[in-house]
Amino acid sequence: MTRAAVAFRDRGLVAGAAIATLMVVVAVSAPLLTAISGQDPTTFHDGLLDSARGGVPVGAFGGVSGEHWLGVEPGTGRDLFARIVYGARVSLGVAVGATVLQVLIGLLAGLAAGLGGRWADAALGRLIDLVLAVPSLVLAISLLAIVPADWPRPVLLAVVIAVLGWGGTARITRGETLSLRTRDYVAAARVSGAGWFRVARREILPGLTAPVLTYAALILPTNMIVEAGLSFLGVGVRPPTPSWGQMLSTATTWFRADPMYVVVPGGLLFLTLLAFVLVANGLRRVLDPRQSEFLR
After folding, report:
1. Which member of 9, 204, 243, 273 has the lowest number of beta carbons within 10 Å of its beta carbon?
2. pLDDT band with cut points at 50, 70 and 90 for residue 289
3. Domain for residue 247, yes or no?
């Protein structure tokens, strides 16, 4: 049975991939979806707020209506649906961008350590250990707090998360490279006169696909949590740009008055994280020959 057939038989992988794909489509289609709803994420609707109650939306479930599908934001009256779909672009975009950068940096460092000499392996190994030992959250907060406010925050977030988080990918890549370089086909390529660059590209990288792809699928939801946490702490994405973490940070002051403002972004964040975790676990089962036997 092919790996594709095994993948389609994995219910967790299929369900996670379906939800993750839906979230990505929603994020990419944010301008179209808000145009259909007739709203945008920045317009204030003061008339939909109850000033006597401190700005709580008028109506049930946070002001849900035919015009405002998920209600409005307390205190500002901005359309919650528009901010959710645009927030998905930021949250997913930062996570995907950080994951791609982490994988690229980790692959290069891990390959250099695994294929280099003893001194290169020792030097890069200590660097990888240092990256893994650094308290990344504290350092990220410090770096983001001193950066000028006019810098593009989503791009900056992706770069900071990647620079502080590539150690895990590098360690996995190094370990797999050290194992793969002892295989007979790698030795045959070296005997035929192939250089280390060609060996890495033609012989080593195909063997790294499964473990690195699986690990990337696992760190993507982790990066979403990091982005949400940094935005929640006020050093991530800043208003008026929406993100799910930033919305949750604001929602903490409105939980009793307007639970919908917490439930919607919090529930979507949880569902998206769960979807990517299911995808990662499914990929591990499908790409690992020892585990894929149980699915046949």
Report:
1. 9
2. low
3. yes
- Do the domain assignments include residue 216? yes
Structural domain boundaries, residue 177? 86-253
Whole-angstrom CA distances from 42 to 34, 246, 249 are: 11, 15, 18
277 is a domain residue? no
Weakest mean pLDDT among 212-216, 251-255, 277-281:
251-255
Using CA atoms, how far apart are residues 249 and 168, in angstroms rounded to an integer? 29
| Whether 290 contacts 6, CB under 8 Å | no
Q: Is residue 60 exposed (0-12), middle (13-18) or buried (19+ Cβ within 10 Å)? A: exposed
What is the tens place of the pLDDT at every residue in 106-157?
A: 999 999 998 887 898 899 999 999 999 988 888 898 888 888 877 888 999 9
Does residue 33 lie within any of the structural domains? no
pLDDT at position 202 is: 83
Give me the pLDDT at residue 296, please: 46
CATH label of the domain that carries residue 149: 1.10.3720.10
pLDDT the model gives residue 162: 94
Residue 285, pLDDT score: 80
